[in-house]
């Protein structure tokens, strides 16, 4: 079966593609810029825009992985129901939806529709630590607010592996799966792991909430996205800091730790390599 993957050039999307290929599945990857996709050989790369469902080629597709938001501003995918209707008409039978942090029109349409659906809810991506790479390389420090807030981060490779297993093997229909790593960590915990992985001292500098807000706004993030991110970090809900065994239950192996992620990505935090 051909599996269609949206968000295929993102941190998690690339892992979904890789894991599907490892399982021997033909993959059609959707991106807005095929020339810049840099996906593995053997992947069918097509251009499409989730905000324009008519541009998504569903012919020959029997399973698909969808994002519930669109674009760099994390806006909800308002035309998600139209996208799902086209997929159903084309003969798609199974779908995974990557949660965006809130109930979206796409998720509502999927869970009310006729497809075999699974919603995947990663609480926090380990790959989000890559935003610190430049400040670590240049100044040897990480600046973040809320030093004592804990998050049950999940390795993006585990997100990809769970997604591929669900799409290919089935048996997970009608379920919503929270995804976490094996432990809930603070930012200082993560910084300590990066220090160990890179062999250099990395300082943690606690920002005020106002400083963090100003920095994110200056970087061009929409105000509503900044508010949502700060609220999530300030008042982390129980599900965001509670470790669950979903990865191990689906894959039959433990979830990967942040320490292992830090070792895999140590090069991004040194002068020898930039993202």
TrEMBL record:
It comes from the Bacteria. SUPFAM superfamilies: NAD(P)-binding Rossmann-fold domains (SSF51735). InterPro entries: Ergot_Alk_Oxidoreductase (IPR051604), NAD(P)-bd_dom_sf (IPR036291), NmrA-like (IPR008030). It holds the Pfam family NmrA. Residues 2-102 form the NmrA-like domain. This is Uncharacterized conserved protein YbjT, contains NAD(P)-binding and DUF2867 domains.
